[in-house]
Amino acid sequence: MNNRLLTLAIVMTVFGFGEVWSSVASAQDPLRPVTPPAANPPESSQQTVTSLTPVAPVPAIPRNEASIWKELAGTWKPTSGLIAGKPMPEGIKNNRLTIRANKTYEFDFGSIKDKGKLVVDLSDEVMRMEFLGTEGPSQDSSIPTIFKFDDGQLVVCYRLGSEEKITEFESPENTETFLIRYERIER
Questions:
Q1: What is the second-level CATH architecture of the domain 3-25+62-186?
Q2: Using CA atoms, how far apart are residues 7 and 1, in angstroms rounded to an integer?
Q3: How far apart are CA 179 and CA 138, in angstroms?
């Protein structure tokens, strides 16, 4: 098994994505398209959100390395996300991502910890971040991502199993792409 596939298998296990991938494999589609609300919707109506949409505009963070690291530093918890186009399992909301100003990270999955170094690249149109595992499930692996700050939250798009650069914040079906929105819980 090559390193990318091994990393994918480890991340899928650590993040607990088994139920999402089972529903993809069995062609169940828990998502419905978002439809505009009726003028006076009944009390029991519900809509399914299929993308991570900003709530309100916020001032942009200056795009220089010092400002970006200052904004990244802290502990973040997942609040919503898509995995291969499907909603992330609720259990993922218990995980934590800590990013330190010394350019290191730690994923806390409860009994499993994953640690490493972070590399931020601001030279492209989208901001890029690479997780370089030094301890835990992703040791000796790298996970490329793109990221942005949106309404005070951190949005990260992870792509596993592909050398292709990520350019969009999306999680198409039948891909190994995770789009996760994080909320800061500690600076």
A1: Beta Barrel (2.40)
A2: 10
A3: 19
